[in-house]
Design brief:
Oligomer: homohexamer
Number of helices of chain A: 4
Structural class of chain A: alpha+beta
Helix content of chain A: 10-25%
Low-confidence stretches of chain A: none
Largest sheet of chain A: 5 strands, antiparallel
Number of domains of chain A: 1
CATH superfamily of chain A: Hotdog Thioesterase
Mean pLDDT of chain A: 95
CATH class of chain A: Alpha Beta
CATH architecture of chain A: Roll
Number of strands of chain A: 7
Shape of chain A: elongated
Order of helices and strands of chain A: EEHHHHEEEEE
Chain lengths: ~150, ~150, ~150, ~150, ~150, ~150
């Protein structure tokens, strides 16, 4: 795990990176149901799902979010920390066997209201499946040090 | 898993429920790192963490979110579906051995702009630890059918 | 997890409830083999199984039992505790992809021989697959407080 | 995994074997809760457990049973199959860190009522912890071929 | 788990044993990726793999090694310990659904250079798939006590 | 997961890189025992281990190897593939709570005997614990394309 200091000034609006991809397997859903206790039939009951709109089991929203975010964890920025997420939306279902990856785009930058040496960088996350369809979006808020602070 | 139809009209502003609780164990963090590929040292490297602000490993934000949301999955509402989350914020770290639960409060209701038979219910989620400290908040958006639609 | 006091007197012979269902996946068998150390080829060796009566891998009996019982864990009864099981029988094999649920029926009630304030309630468990076939039965013994004890 | 044909006649009343042992870890309980969906606070909520009779989390009964039985899975008997269990009783709780093993004793043999070439062998299972205390017992019913059948 | 003292003199050149087999499932690869953090697309990205030489996901080399060695863990030899491995080679890929087992052959014996009471036994491990193809080989070095030492 | 073509000529003798670190938890050992079926008491029986040389459970050699290698999986080299390992040695035990990382040093380069366009690069892996002690070594053989081949 590499460490790279990336200050508020280093983030450029519109800059974008694409993560590696992961296939969401039946095992992933079983493990996620087990970790969260979310045993909703939409995720663990194949018979129930035959009669739903999608006709099959779908990944938990929290699984899509966890993997979509996890795939972005490629280097450590010691001068920033995660603040939260806004506008998290599940656009399309993720099915067993779908392969997802994330595109991260710097979509906003603003000064921190109270702390002059800090800024808020917004990373727009777009999680896509193997067909290029967007399955999830979210705005990740990163609190960053300013370089000369 | 019980099923109970809960229409837009059935949700009352200010209504609140408290979920069961789960202790976040070292095993949970190991499994979550494995599921997401997020091997950041803040979660899996106890030596690194000795020199951080907290002095110990912390749960992934996505783990706190997944468990905090999973604990609310107690009954199926066939006339509603999850739309997304707003204003997800990580307020305090969750450490190994902390026990978290979630308080769900109906905080907003509004008509759907385009679909007359639907409304948006906002569930405010507050995840608390065993000391009663809020560790995470989020607004869950639920799209619900109206009763007479 | 809701808590509801259910006393000896509250259980009615013949009362019945049906749990949610869970699909038994290949991942469940892999995880169960790992947890128990039961690496019998009937569960983990697909080639060996081609030459067995069933032609495919089957779930461990302990897995069917654990899930069949686990699905009944929907509310906490603070005035009762599990005493054991009688007449546990594996009727039919559970295959990968089968979806099982449990029907719980109150089949017997009797006073505790030594403790006047307690009674034994028998819950008959019947685990069924998606075809409605019974795959497992067991009698669950519940030691319950009497209401006016 | 060795295979050894062991016929009805080969089982001797009173014969006994002792399995290897396994420490029941916090991870085992987390994984078992996940596999079964049994999120009862007795197993996953350390805070709740502080106020119980035992003062700490306990293993699921189904976990003790699954591991206690799994430890006996040391060789394959192609002329017998598992029929079920009788008189399964949880005698003492199993705590995180307890190490359990199983003693298997041939406690009964009888002819099969309908099939002249088969017999029923009862293996009495006794699961013990590291203090030598019995934590679980069960009678395992094994349907065996007779040698000259 | 049986214990059996097997001294240096007891190992005979050319002696061979065959282990049980295990099917390598998608779940095994998911769990192994999670345990090691090796999220290479060759193992977890089914779309990427469509364009590789093999056209599908393959097991991690470390998974094949871990299972191939694990299958040999059938009895404890209290007078020997594992020293290491030489000449570990991955001959063919292991795909999801392949079933592997290990053949262990005593291929070399020599005195320990410095300790007169010890010898080095080489176990040649050959891991084969269900087609009888060798997928991995390695030489396991076992340091053994001499009987009359 | 970044991709970076690294040809035979690009590897320089003596070049070295240090990976991130991972704490080996009790959960990791439980999961590894489950994945491999290696239920040797040295890994899963805390009581047995009290009477061993080390007084406590130790990680499986295959776990140390899998994690030590997995930590090096940081970028994809499309012009090389893993050939095998030589001289894998377990130097010191890894205990629950130890934190390990890997130092990779280019220790040898040679032409491939039969294929003029390929070379063999040896990466010496040294796995160290939090005290700086070497717990494992191995020589990783990488078959690489030559740049102008």
């Amino acid at each position: 795990m590499d460490e790279k200091a990336c200050y508020f000034e280093d983030y450029q609006l519109g800059d974008s990176r694409t993560t590696g991809a992961k296939t969401i397997t039946e095992a992933d859903i079983v493990i996620h149901a087990g970790q969260t206790g979310d045993f909703f039939p939409h995720h663990i009951d194949a018979e129930f799902c035959k009669n739903t709109e999608f006709g099959q089991r779908i990944a938990h929203g929290t699984l899509t979010f966890s993997v979509g975010v996890g795939l972005t964890a490629s280097f450590i920025n010691p001068v920033a920390f995660s603040y939260g997420y806004d506008h998290l939306r599940f656009i399309k279902p993720v099915f067993i066997g779908d392969t997802i990856h994330t595109v991260v785009t710097i979509s906003d930058k603003k000064d921190h209201k109270k702390r002059a040496n800090m800024g808020i960088v917004t990373e727009h996350l777009e999680v896509l499946n193997q067909k290029g369809e967007t399955v999830m979006v979210a705005d990740h808020l990163l609190m960053c040090q300013k370089r000369d602070a």
